[in-house]
TrEMBL record:
TM region(s), chain numbering: none
The keyword ATP-binding belongs to this UniProt entry's keyword annotation: yes
UniProt source species: Syntrophus aciditrophicus (strain SB)
Stored PROSITE patterns: ABC_TRANSPORTER_1, ABC_TRANSPORTER_2
Protein name per Swiss-Prot or TrEMBL: ABC transporter ATP-binding protein
Length: 230
């Protein structure tokens, strides 16, 4: 079943006399449980696409359905709620609240569901432990390594039962070994918990961890292929 579906999305920026089609008619369906990598040159519309499907930005026109809900018809509050309930963001730099502990960062989006504070705490601690962050619960992001920060963001998605993880260059700042660890974690979550993952990367080695690669160019999808595992 489609978890996300876009129909003819356009995002048009007018800056002075220039008109930029950041998205130029993007129609795509991503089913529950898929693991998709988005690739393409700089300026091809990848971030714009991620921001629209993450309900952080509105398209100029076109339709976006998330889990069957037409996002275009929602108010700001409804958007914030859907973002918190359905989407785990693993974005570089815009990941975690800086002055807030790992534990509280993981608990935050759960404020949008009806769990007791004890249950929220338990789920957060369990998720942090699953991601190998035991003993780091009280650390703030700047007291954690880049890889640990990404794992906190993934723990946050997991604790919150987010059906969708959006990751923008999740391994961009990480060394090779840590990058592979993060990717293996995502592969495990995708297989075991059926979490849908959409990630942007410009590295083929990273894209190979996914099962489908969508390539953008000039705001359009130019290829969409299954990854053949050797
Ligand atoms: P990518 O993530 O693939 O590098 P982006 O989605 O960031 O590409 O950008 C796509 C195009 O839209 C680029 O040409 C970029 O300059 C333009 N663009 C993005 N955001 C804005 C903005 N806020 N105002 C004007 N143009 C923008
Ligand atoms: P506004 O609707 O006021 O422009 P934003 O779109 O900047 O607000 O952000 C709304 C909410 O979405 C914020 O509470 C922020 O936590 C979250 N948010 C914004 N950008 C990102 C991002 N790149 N990754 C994760 N969460 C984000």
């Amino acid at each position: 079943m489609a978890l996300l579906e876009t129909k003819d999305l356009y995002k048009i920026y007018e800056v002075g006399e220039n008109v930029v089609h950041a998205l130029d008619g993007v129609s795509v369906t991503i089913d529950r449980g898929e693991f998709v990598a988005i690739m393409g040159p700089s300026g091809s519309g990848k971030s714009t696409f991620m921001n629209v499907i993450g309900c952080l930005d509105e398209p100029t026109r076109g339709q976006y359905l998330l889990d069957g809900i037409d996002v275009g018809g929602l108010t700001r509050d409804e958007l914030a709620e859907i973002r918190n309930r359905k989407i785990g963001f693993v974005f570089q730099g815009f990941n975690l609240l800086p002055r807030t502990s790992a534990l509280e960062n993981v608990e935050l989006p759960m404020l949008y569901n009806s769990l007791s504070s004890a249950e929220r705490r338990k789920r957060a601690l369990d998720a942090l432990r699953m991601l190998g962050l035991e003993g780091r619960e009280q650390h703030t992001p700047n007291q954690l390594s880049g890889g640990q920060q990404q794992r906190v963001a993934i723990a946050r998605a997991l604790a919150n039962d987010a059906p969708l993880i959006l990751a923008d260059e999740p391994t961009g700042n990480l060394d090779t070994k840590t990058s592979i660890e993060i990717m293996e974690l995502l592969v495990g979550l995708n297989l075991e918990s059926a979490i849908t993952i959409v990630l942007v990367t410009h590295e083929s080695d990273i894209a190979e961890f996914s099962r489908r690669i969508i390539r953008f160019r000039d705001g359009r999808i130019v290829s969409d292929e299954a990854v053949v595992k050797s």
